[in-house]
Amino acid sequence: MLQQELLSRTSLETQKLDLMTEVSELKLKLVGMEKEQREQEEKQKKAESVLNVISELQEQMCRLQLDIHRQIQERLLLSRGCSEEVAASDGAAQPSPCGPDCACGDGSPELLQELRHLKIKVEELENERNQYEWKLKATKAEVAQLQEQVALKDAEI
């Protein structure tokens, strides 16, 4: 009976060590996943800031194009000797101001394409972050379960 008790204790201690090793591995995995999550969040913030900068630049480009268009019209009218028409058409000759998704008539298709590409990239990063968060929760649950098993084995020992 004493030998059997020693064998069962040895077996339980071996199982405990195995579980502790597994818990340590899962903790390392958890730390790695948390680091990945932080990196993904940083990437997402960078992508969002780039998207904001692109939007601001696009709005500036629209305003500049409107100014250039207005100045060209004024110079054409002045060169024709129609200075009265410039004063009369001051508000009517200007195109409507740009909206948030403005392409400014001719616009820049490359810029719009880049904007679409960045929006897709941001969505992909958000999806990836959600997946990492899900994996992180699952790993935390697994760690908690293994810690409970370790505590039960300790109690048995």
Automatic annotation (TrEMBL):
Keyword Repeat included in the entry's annotation: yes
Family matches, as InterPro entries: LIPB1/2_CC, Liprin
Coiled coil (residue ranges): 23-60, 108-156
Keyword Transferase assigned: no
Key words, A-Z: Coiled coil, Repeat
Domain of life (superkingdom): Eukaryota
Domain called Liprin-beta-1/2 coiled-coil: residue spans: 1-62
GO BP annotations, alphabetical order: neuromuscular junction development
GO CC, alphabetical: presynaptic active zone
Protein name: PPFIA binding protein 2
